[in-house]
Amino acid sequence: MGIRLFVGTDKGAFVIHSQDRRSWKIEGPIFKGWKVTASMRDHRGTFLAATASYVYGAAIHRASDLTGEWTQVEQSPQYDKGGQRKMKQVWRLAGNEEALYAGVDEAGLFKSTDDGNTWQPITALNEHSSRHAWQPGAGGLCCHVILLDPTNAKRLWCGISAVGVFRSDDGGESWQPKNTGVPVILEDKTEPEVGFCVHGLVASPDDPNRIYRQDHLGMFRSSDGGDNWERNENGLPSRFGFPIAMDRRTGTLFAAPLESDEYRLPCDGRLCIYRSTNNGDSWEDASNGLPDAHAYECVLRGALTVDDQDPCGVYFGTTSGSVYASADGGDSWQTLPCRLPRILSVVAYGDDS
User: Which of 87, 141, 196, 295 is most buried, judged by most C-beta within 10 A?
Assistant: First the structure.
């Protein structure tokens, strides 16, 4: 089965496809000149993509094929006109058979139960009692991570920078902060359960209670659905980084460490991917074929992805516009034949989609 990568950049989206995960062809740009911040495929096989414009604002589009005709959803997620919150962009799209979800900046979560035709704010989170203490990270006040429990449609998690992880056990009717064990980064005396800066979340394919978290202040994991967190950084060259991804077949984890919060550069000028094959107990360098000197491009939180083939393919794009691919689970890498605008998101889709 072939693979198509939908690569969202600062100035449009590109579709990079291959039948053998070795030779690649590039199409695009789609949404030329617009930021393309997220994409997904829903349970019906329809593709959704999120765009943002400084002039026209944020919007969601859909298509039956990645390189086909895209139609803008007329009622994309929006805050009330005249309110204090602005809809700057959609950071993440996710969904199951019951609902679609959009995480946005300025931080909030929206839900659609009619296949994306209309979107309603999830008031219990957007108006959470701790909202007065929410502070933005360097990338803004953004809801950029959504995890859905495949065994329980009413259970979901979201991550907000620089606020923390929240979990709902009742389909979004109520939300509880879940950050115990993670160091606070922006302490608030009145709301001690917020002030954390999650960068990425993934959950085990065998146990949705086992969650892995790349945080501003380290790498963590939880075995109880986020109630408690512990560090799992053995072997990593740095605690700091943005994305984390997982092979859904085997549970292998992938991360892209950066030197530090202060510098946000690859460690020692090497563009590195690290992986863990033992539930995060230890990490190993899996960077064979990546630039190993004078490489100062970074991988943003939405720009690392894994396909569902055996062995898994791993893909990421960088702030310098390069795209890298591994067809063997990170054992070796190739540089794809393109140099794109700053890359914001990368999602892999099977070519039968």
Answer: 196
